[in-house]
Design goal:
Layout: H1 2-16, E1 23-25, E2 38-42, E3 55-63, E4 75-82, E5 88-92, E6 97-100, H2 103-115, E7 124-128, E8 137-144, E9 149-155, H3 161-176, E10 191-200, E11 203-211, E12 223-231, E13 236-243, H4 249-259, H5 262-268, E14 295-303, E15 308-313, H6 316-336
Helix pairs in contact: 2-3, 4-6
Amino acid sequence: MRGKKIMAALLCASLLFGLGGCTKPVSILDPEPIDGGTTVHTDANAPKVIQSKDIRAFFANFYLYHRWRGDEERFFKFEIKLNDEGTLTATERNSGASLPADADLLTALQEVIDRYNLAAKNGIYEVTAGLPPEFQESTLRVSYESGESLTFTQNNNPEAKWAEAVYDVFAAWFSAHGDDILQPDRETSLLNRLDIRSVEGSIYLDYCGINVNEKDAIDGETYLLMWSVWDDEAQQLLAKEFILFPEDYYERVTEILAKYDLYLKYEQSWPSHDDGYYGMGDESLLEGEEDREDRRLDLYGEFESGNRFSIETKKESEIEGLQPMLDELYEYHASLFQSYR
């Protein structure tokens, strides 16, 4: 589905700019790209396997739909090279972020190259003229201590997983070294609603706010926090209890979700939501993982800002990725109800 979206956008762009979709191979000696067409040059001798893992220099530029800085900038240009003083330096040119590079950064980038088998693209140059800015050429260029090199240039894919992974590596690395300029703004308002439903086999566990009848009010309050356990196979309610919301309830649950960056990962993963993925599990399982029939998680929340999230998944990898956060939420909620004490 995501691939179709990109192809449709490229087609629309080609029609908009009067491109005939013509593709003409050209020599590397051709000085200019073909006007209104696609310039293709493939180096047939470029190796598709790089033996070295020791990066000496790195360059990548791209535009991303689902990654952005705090100022909403989505164009990124990353580079690692020796500066004028001879220090290997990592830079993001558009933001001006710059720090001496280290082995951790280089190793993490090589892991991305290996994970997405980017060496298979080595030697490719295929660029269509006249596309909108977000689809214009994207280049990856890596040189190694062994003298090997990896280079390709293609029309940018704003949803490319390898490019998102490169951004994630740099953003996390700069942040770990005290510079958050590449990080997006986080949701900072408090939750004002949180509904949790976990299904394990036939057992349904729920924590949520609910309006009750006047006769069930506590101290005159009819909007209460509920805990319930239902056995669907036996069609039997095993437990149900209502309590007043603790004064610090929303502060506590907001703190737990913020610890795991849930809302940001939710925003960054929205194209995968229909498939049951929300950025918390193993990305390598995005294709082909079957839904669990006996396990499900529903998590819904609203913030005072008006932002909200709605997670509905039967994917084992995603539930496992969410589990550490869920364990904290369950432990906190269990501590509130008399039946758990």
